[in-house]
Structures are given as structure tokens and as C-alpha cells.
């Protein structure tokens, strides 16, 4: 009989046994490799003691079971109603096959933005399907791969029109039939750009006074009308016409492109994506072909690989904001890829016949309701509509709204004497009965059969004609299509994604589960607040924890991407200056070492960017900074710094930078992109920061979703709190996104992360992230120069490998990145922040075994570079240049100077579970010169194969 030996292992310790990769024994070995006696000694050598926070993060951790029990309690405080509020948000049915195989599948939600196309062919195809769907339904030939939401898409379209219109006017017409939150965001975005917003009825439009105009179709209160004459009049005056529209309505209505629209925008939410109390949902934009190179955001294009096979890629990447910096036309950095993929599969799942059937059912249900109300003597408007009507109820408005709520239905309050009703896909006979009962109608409604759409507004053209939308929709076939696409990709469920500045950490299953619960997913963002008590509790507690983590006093959860957070932070600073009579402050100092989208955000906020040099060691050049701050004087609005810097080091002079800025009356914006090196150790609000945004999709465990969703809430010191973004439902709010709490449903993921990690676990995660990065730097420093190190020879949570010396042998950073694919790895961040380098961030979640596999791969690549340098193989004939190798290389004729095994199974690669990229190296230049952004016909694949 064995003796009883107590075990100190706690299987419920999420932070140390689930989230943090290396075991205590492995950490000891790693510390030995980096030359530190303990983890605390390493942190003392890395993080300047002068900025370390005094008080530890102190809340206790929950187990996974404890978390889910807490989430169930909070979810029960939300009241799930049938929301017929409309206003851009609608009930929808997510096909279970899509919910389980896309939304709940880590192969889809843990992937990164497809900057490495060879390992992203699956989601690129799904996004190309999304673009094709949007282009077809809007009747415009080019669409992008999603924007953040409808309101920000409309604001982007306004800025695009300003750049492209022949008219030199500064006026932009906003039809009053736009959704109120869209108007609010447009007005926020217009002010810093000097755009004069003119609001009015469509018939009040004077085309000669504007560079563009935007109309809602169908309107926010349901009106539909032919916009052809408006578009023609705008074109005559050299202005552009923008239409905010609804994809489901366009299955029946004449498309914007057929009426002369230049740009169409909207949300794809009702294509199978839950409302989620505001998001995330994929906004869309499409445009005329001549405007395609001015379109913001990402565009998936078709190119060829090294063998001439069709291959997908992100087109026109030179427009990316971190490359163009202050010359960028937009600061869009996060798309909504996961949600765009869901919407695209919804269209594939239903096909054009299914979508048309859903649209017809929605419309005829609206007709049924309108007819019943009119028969009872109610005044219903408009006469022509798709899914939305308003009913004049006079002084009985409050009573009708209350009666509907008593029957489990939310209606929209319109003015003082009307209520709005928006029918959606989930509306059935029971809902209609309860709805009419709220109006005192107890007679069974006679089903509507005659459309309320004028004959001339009925759609004539075909859509979704590509074979992908006509595939056999048996669930077995759909399931296999989704699996085939996911198998073409490399996500976190296959391997480490060591992208610097992107923090690709574990997205725990327990954190993800609640977002698909109806208590969280089925809430309309404009539902009465008493129905969202659970959300209020979660958001308030998350805000309190983020305040404790950052040292700030208040947070706005509204920005729904990191770039939106940057922008919102700068607008908050501007509003503060104006309130203090310092409206002249418009200069923003940005060091070269700051995050890449900072200059674009500053430019969008109406600030003048002044670049500050870096010292040779990568730090901010303090002398240059002080000189430029002094020259700016009373015009200094802000400084934008990233801490630790994008060079991967903690700078000792950060307090000095903040002090200089404050001395000249400026405000300090600290970019939260690298917060994963600070949590529990340093509070940006305590070292001199006035405002920071946090990338919840980095540090706080929201998955990247193949290129989004993201959240970028901003924290501020108390003096800035009154100037945070306001509610988008209110005029003059300074709103930056469509919903009051942005993509509210995914805030639950970050809250769950904080609850399961506890304060101590979050701090330990930061320490281990720094250990993992220093371990990689130490192991690779003899093979690759480490570009920047701190004053004590340590890096922060990421390190930069300098591959520029290999250029003299013809080896490029691209060669190394593509060769890593053969090893089964996503490449680190390429050529940013320094051209010709690789920025590596392992995060705390990666195990020592995976990190060692990555190191093995890079050391083997270094040996292959040595073979080239010592003339044993020419670079043109090396495995580096032929990388990545595909399955075709195993069966093709072989005349290369290296073996098939070396090419296809290099050190570090798995043999049994080897990842095979579906295409060879993609030709970027060909793709940009021959821009194809919708699904090519199947014949083209046959031609490529020949």
C-alpha cells in the first residue's frame, strides 16, 4: 500500500496550469539559459525600478467552473426580449453549422490577419466570398473585406468622398433618414477634418454646396425611394453619392449601383451574426471600380503563386497605415474578419434563393402587421417600405411601449408620438400576435400577400451567381467546405504565432463560451437599460479592474478597435484643450519608436504630426524631443508614445518625456499596444500618462479572429473623464462607434480572462512573457543580432532579430518568413518597426517545447544562410528561395541541390502532423497589377492549372 503524499498541484489553477505555458521546472531552465537567478531578478533587470507600481493587483482568481457559474448568474440578470427596434440591428438566426464550425472553432477565431497569404488561403477565400456577396448585392463592382460597423463605414465613406470628389466644397450632406448613431459618428469624424455637415431632408439637398451626400436606403423609419435623380444631380456638381443600405433588403430592392451610387456602406449583422448588445459585426463598403484604390481597409485580391496557381492575398498592402503613417488616408487597422466570414457563410448556406425567401418572408410579415394596424384605424407610415414602419400613437406612446414590453417585445420610441416597428428573420406568428395585442388588436392577422414595394424599386438583376453560392447545401457538404478552408490556414490551434506587437496568446475556451449564450447574444444595443443589468455589472467590474491595472480613473468602452481607441484618446485630449481655451493646440509629437498607426490617428484627429528621432539604442532621442516640445510651445497638444517602445525595450527616460510634455501644457498619450509587458508591474497612469487605449484583442485575450474583431477602450486620468466619447444615440456626443459600448459581447472575454487569472495571475503572465522573450533573445543572439536591448542587456516582451546583414548574400526577410512556413510556423512581424527585421513576441502562453521548436527552426534557417554565404548553394537554388514547399514538391520532378527531406521536413517541423501550405510563394506584384477582388469564375482555375 503506497504512503499518502500530499500533492501541491491545483488542477483548478487556471493562470498557472492553463494559461501560462512553461511549467515551474521549465522556467527554472529558461532562467538559467538567460543568466538570471530568479524570475524576480530578471524583472528587476528589465523593468526600471523607478516606474514599478507600489501596490499589487489583489483580486482573487476563479476556476473555470467558478467563472462559468459567475457568468450564468450575471447572464440571468439580462432580460432577453424580442427587439423590433431596428435602427441597424436585427434578430437573426445563426445556422448551428456556422455557430459551431466558425464562431466556436479555434481554427477560425485564433488566426491572425492574413498578412502571410500562403498560410491564410482558407479565410482569404471566405473573405473573397464576403466581398463578392457585398459587391453583388449592392451592385457595385468592388468591396473591401469589412470595416468596424455601419456608422464608422459611413464616416470612412465621407472621408473617401472628400478625397475623390471633383467638387472643392467643404460641405457634406447627411440625409435625416440616416440612423441617428450613424449621424453622430459622421459628425464626430467630420469636425477635425474641417468638413461642414449639412443635415436635412433629401429634397433639401443642394448638390452645388457639397462634395458628397449620404442617404439611408431603406431609411431609418422605413422609407424607400428611388435615389437615381439625387445621384445624377450630385454627379453633375462633381460630388459623390453614398448610400447606407441593408443587404437583406437588397435581395428584393433595386440595388444602389443601379441608381448611380458611387459608394455603398452598411452592416452585415443580420446575415447570421447575433446582435450581442452592439457587436461585433462586420461593416461593409463597396464602390465604383474607379474608386477602388482609394477605398480604406483591407481588400482581398486574386494573384498567382510561384507555380502559376491561383492564390489569394491582401491587395494594395502599401496603403497600410503603419507603412504610410501620417500620409495614411485612414487609421483602420482592425477589420471584423471573423464576423465577415460568418456573414459570407450565411450567404453560402442559404444561397440567393434562400436569402430571397428570407427577405420575402420578412417583408410580407411587415405587410401583415401594417395591414392589421391600418385596419384597426392606426396611422401607419410609410406606404412603401421593406421591414420597418412607424405608427402614430399620440399621447399613448408610453402606454404602447409599456404594453409591448409586458408582452416581451421592445419597440422603438420615435419622437413624442410615434413608435417604430422593424420586422426581422426571427419574427413569427406568435410575435405578430403579441405585437398586435399590445396595440389592443386581438383579431387574428390576415397574412399579407401584396408587397409594399413599388414596382420600379423591385430588383431586376441577378446576384450571387458564382458557383460557391450554389453548392449543395446539405449540412455534410457545408461542414466539409468549412473544414477544407480551415485546414488551409495556420492558426493558434496548430502552432505558435510569434508576431511582435500582436500578442497572440491563449484564447481560453471557458472565456469564449458565454458570448454565444442568448442572454448575452440576443440583446439589442438600444434596448432599455434595465434589460441589460448583467451587461452593466460585467462592464462596470471590467472597468474597475482596468483602472486598477492601468492607474487611470475612468474608461470608455466604446472604441471597437485599437485604432479607434487611439483616435478617441486624441479627441478626448482635444476636447479638454478646447474647454480650457487652448483650441490652438494642434501639434502632436510622435517618436519613430511609437506604434505604426499613431501618426494616421493624429492626422485624422486634425493634428499636425512632428516626428521625434530615436537614439542609436532605440530610445527616444531626449534632446530632440525636448527641442521639438519647446518649439511647439503653446501649440503642443499631445505626445504619443508606446511603452515599452515598439523597439522592445523599457526606456528609463519615460517619466522625463512625460514631464517635458506637461511642462509645455501637452497631454501624454501612451499607446497600450505593449500592455502585455506592463500588467501588474507598471501603471501607465502613474508614470505620467494622461490617456491610453488598451488592445483587448492583445493583452486581454480576445482572439484576433483572422483579422478582427478587436476592442480598444481608453483609460484617462480624472481631468479628462468629462471629455470621453458620448452615447451615439445623443446629438453632439462625440461618439466614435455605432453602439454605446462598442462590441459589447466580446468585453465578456476580457472580463472572464481577468476573473480567472486574478491579480496575481495577471502579474505572473507579464513576468513569463518577459522571460519567454528573453529566452528567445538569449538562445538566438549568436545566430541573429538582437537589434535593441535595454540598458542591462534585456528585452521586454518581444525582441527584434536583425536579418539585414544577410542581404549581402541575397537573402531577404521574406525568404526567412516563407521558410518558417515549412517549419510549421507563422512568421514574426516582418520589417516593422525596422525594415528588414523580424520582431518576435512569444507571449506567456507558449510552452518551452514550442518555443524550443521555433528556436530550432530559426537556427536551421541560419545554417542554410551560412551555406549560401559560403557558396555551398546559390541563393536562387536554396530552400530559402523555393519556400514554402507544398505537397506538389513531394511528387514533382526534383532537380534542386538540396534533398526533398531538407526542403519539406526541415528541423522543427512535425512529420506526422506536418502543415502543408496550399500554395507556393504568392506573387504580390502580379496581384496588384491585375486587381481582382471578387470570386473569379471557375474557368479561371482551370486555365491556371493548364
TrEMBL record:
The modification N6-(pyridoxal phosphate)lysine is found at residue 698. Its cofactor is pyridoxal 5'-phosphate. Pfam families: GcvP2_C (PF21478), GDC-P (PF02347). Residues 17-439, 467-726 form the Glycine cleavage system P-protein N-terminal domain. It is an enzyme of class 1 (oxidoreductase). Its EC number is 1.4.4.2. Gene3D superfamilies: Aspartate Aminotransferase, domain 1 (3.90.1150.10), Type I PLP-dependent aspartate aminotransferase-like (Major domain) (3.40.640.10). GO terms for molecular function: glycine binding; glycine dehydrogenase (decarboxylating) activity; pyridoxal phosphate binding. The keyword Oxidoreductase applies. The glycine cleavage system catalyzes the degradation of glycine. The P protein binds the alpha-amino group of glycine through its pyridoxal phosphate cofactor; CO(2) is released and the remaining methylamine moiety is then transferred to the lipoamide cofactor of the H protein. This is Glycine dehydrogenase (decarboxylating). It comes from Paracoccus onubensis.
Amino acid at each position: 500500500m503506497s504512503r499518502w503524499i500530499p500533492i501541491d498541484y491545483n488542477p483548478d489553477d487556471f493562470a498557472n496550469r492553463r494559461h501560462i505555458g512553461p511549467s515551474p521546472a521549465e522556467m527554472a531552465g529558461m532562467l538559467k539559459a538567460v543568466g538570471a537567478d530568479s524570475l524576480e531578478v530578471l524583472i528587476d533587470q528589465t523593468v526600471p525600478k523607478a516606474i514599478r507600481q507600489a501596490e499589487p493587483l489583489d483580486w482573487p482568481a476563479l476556476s473555470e467552473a467558478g467563472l462559468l457559474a459567475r457568468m450564468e448568474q450575471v447572464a440571468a440578470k439580462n432580460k432577453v426580449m424580442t427587439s423590433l427596434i431596428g435602427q441597424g440591428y436585427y434578430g437573426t438566426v445563426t445556422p448551428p453549422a456556422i455557430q459551431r464550425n466558425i464562431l466556436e472553432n479555434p481554427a477560425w477565431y485564433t488566426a491572425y490577419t492574413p498578412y502571410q497569404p500562403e498560410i491564410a488561403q482558407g479565410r482569404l477565400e471566405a473573405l473573397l466570398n464576403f466581398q463578392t456577396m457585398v459587391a453583388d448585392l449592392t451592385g457595385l463592382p468592388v468591396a473591401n473585406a469589412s470595416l468596424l460597423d455601419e456608422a464608422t463605414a459611413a464616416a470612412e465613406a465621407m472621408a473617401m468622398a472628400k478625397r475623390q470628389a471633383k467638387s472643392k466644397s467643404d460641405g457634406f450632406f447627411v440625409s435625416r433618414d440616416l440612423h441617428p448613431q450613424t449621424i453622430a459618428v459622421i459628425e464626430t469624424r467630420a469636425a477635425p477634418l474641417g468638413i461642414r455637415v449639412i443635415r436635412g431632408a433629401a429634397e433639401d439637398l443642394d448638390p452645388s454646396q457639397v462634395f458628397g451626400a449620404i442617404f439611408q436606403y431603406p431609411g431609418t423609419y422605413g422609407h424607400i425611394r428611388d435615389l437615381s435623380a439625387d445621384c445624377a444631380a450630385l454627379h453633375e456638381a462633381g460630388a459623390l453619392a453614398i448610400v447606407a443600405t441593408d443587404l437583406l433588403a437588397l435581395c428584393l430592392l433595386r440595388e444602389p449601383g443601379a441608381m448611380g451610387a458611387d459608394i455603398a456602406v452598411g452592416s452585415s449583422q443580420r446575415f447570421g451574426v447575433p446582435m450581442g448588445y452592439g457587436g461585433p459585426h462586420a461593416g461593409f463598403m463597396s464602390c465604383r471600380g474607379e474608386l477602388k484604390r482609394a477605398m480604406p481597409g483591407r481588400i482581398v485580391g486574386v494573384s498567382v503563386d510561384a507555380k502559376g496557381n491561383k492564390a489569394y492575398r491582401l491587395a494594395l498592402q502599401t496603403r497600410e497605415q503603419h507603412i504610410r503613417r501620417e500620409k495614411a488616408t485612414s487609421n483602420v487597422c482592425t477589420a471584423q474578419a471573423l464576423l465577415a466570414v460568418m456573414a459570407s457563410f450565411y450567404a453560402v448556406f442559404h444561397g440567393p434563393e434562400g436569402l430571397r425567401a428570407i427577405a420575402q418572408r420578412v417583408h410580407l410579415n411587415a405587410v401583415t402587421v401594417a395591414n392589421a394596424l391600418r385596419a384597426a384605424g392606426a396611422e401607419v407610415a410609410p406606404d412603401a417600405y421593406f421591414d420597418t414602419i412607424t405608427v402614430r400613437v399620440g399621447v399613448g406612446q408610453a402606454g404602447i411601449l409599456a404594453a409591448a414590453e409586458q408582452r416581451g417585445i421592445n419597440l422603438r420610441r420615435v419622437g413624442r408620438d410615434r413608435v417604430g416597428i422593424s420586422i426581422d428573420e426571427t419574427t413569427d406568428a406568435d410575435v405578430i400576435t403579441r405585437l398586435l395585442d399590445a396595440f389592443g388588436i386581438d383579431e387574428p392577422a390576415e397574412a399579407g400577400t401584396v408587397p409594399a414595394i413599388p414596382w420600379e424599386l423591385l430588383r431586376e438583376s441577378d446576384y450571387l451567381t458564382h458557383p460557391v453560392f450554389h453548392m449543395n447545401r446539405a449540412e455534410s457538404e457545408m461542414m466539409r467546405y468549412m473544414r477544407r478552408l480551415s485546414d488551409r490556414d495556420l492558426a493558434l490551434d496548430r502552432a505558435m504565432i510569434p508576431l511582435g506587437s500582436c500578442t497572440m496568446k491563449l484564447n481560453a475556451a471557458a472565456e469564449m463560451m458565454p458570448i454565444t449564450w442568448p442572454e448575452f447574444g440576443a440583446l439589442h444595443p438600444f434596448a432599455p437599460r434595465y434589460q441589460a443589468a448583467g451587461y452593466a455589472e460585467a462592464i462596470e467590474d471590467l472597468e474597475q479592474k482596468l483602472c486598477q491595472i492601468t492607474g487611470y480613473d475612468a474608461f470608455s468602452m466604446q472604441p471597437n478597435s485599437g485604432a479607434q481607441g487611439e483616435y478617441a484618446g486624441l479627441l478626448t485630449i482635444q476636447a479638454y484643450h478646447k474647454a480650457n481655451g487652448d483650441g490652438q493646440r494642434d501639434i502632436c509629437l510622435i517618436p519613430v519608436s511609437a506604434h505604426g498607426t499613431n501618426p494616421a490617428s493624429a492626422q485624422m484627429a486634425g493634428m499636425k504630426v512632428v516626428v521625434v528621432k530615436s537614439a542609436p539604442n532605440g530610445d527616444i532621442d531626449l534632446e530632440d524631443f525636448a527641442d521639438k516640445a519647446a518649439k511647439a510651445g503653446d501649440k503642443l497638444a499631445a505626445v504619443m508614445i508606446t511603452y515599452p517602445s515598439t523597439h522592445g525595450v523599457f526606456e528609463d527616460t519615460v517619466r522625463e518625456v512625460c514631464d517635458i510634455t506637461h511642462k509645455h501644457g501637452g497631454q501624454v498619450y501612451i499607446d497600450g499596444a505593449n500592455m502585455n509587458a506592463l500588467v501588474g508591474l507598471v501603471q501607465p497612469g502613474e508614470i505620467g500618462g494622461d490617456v491610453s487605449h488598451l488592445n483587448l484583442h492583445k493583452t486581454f485575450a480576445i482572439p484576433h479572429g483572422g483579422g478582427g474583431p478587436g476592442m480598444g477602450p481608453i483609460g484617462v486620468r480624472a481631468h479628462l473623464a468629462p471629455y470621453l466619447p458620448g452615447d451615439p444615440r445623443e446629438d453632439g456626443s462625440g461618439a466614435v462607434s455605432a453602439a454605446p459600448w462598442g462590441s459589447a459581447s466580446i468585453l465578456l472575454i476580457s472580463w472572464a480572462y481577468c476573473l480567472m487569472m486574478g491579480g496575481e495571475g495577471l502579474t505572473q503572465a507579464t513576468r513569463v512573457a518577459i522571460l519567454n522573450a528573453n529566452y528567445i533573445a538569449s538562445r538566438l543572439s549568436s545566430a541573429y543580432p538582437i537589434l535593441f536591448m535595454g540598458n542591462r542587456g534585456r528585452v521586454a516582451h518581444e525582441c527584434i532579430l536583425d536579418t539585414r546583414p544577410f542581404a549581402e548574400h541575397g537573402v531577404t526577410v521574406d525568404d526567412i518568413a516563407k521558410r518558417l512556413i515549412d517549419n510549421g510556423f507563422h512568421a514574426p512581424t516582418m520589417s516593422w518597426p525596422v525594415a528588414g527585421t523580424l520582431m518576435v513576441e512569444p507571449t506567456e502562453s507558449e510552452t518551452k517545447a514550442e518555443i524550443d521548436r521555433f528556436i530550432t527552426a530559426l537556427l536551421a534557417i541560419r545554417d542554410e544562410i551560412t551555406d549560401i554565404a559560403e557558396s555551398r548553394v546559390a541563393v536562387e537554388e536554396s530552400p530559402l528561395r523555393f519556400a514554402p514547399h507544398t505537397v506538389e514538391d513531394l511528387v514533382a520532378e526534383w532537380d534542386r541541390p538540396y534533398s526533398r527531406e531538407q526542403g519539406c521536413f526541415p528541423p522543427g517541423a512535425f512529420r506526422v502532423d506536418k502543415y502543408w501550405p496550399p500554395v507556393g510563394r504568392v506573387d504580390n506584384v502580379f496581384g496588384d497589377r491585375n486587381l481582382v477582388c471578387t470570386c473569379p469564375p471557375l474557368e479561371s482555375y482551370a486555365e491556371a492549372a493548364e
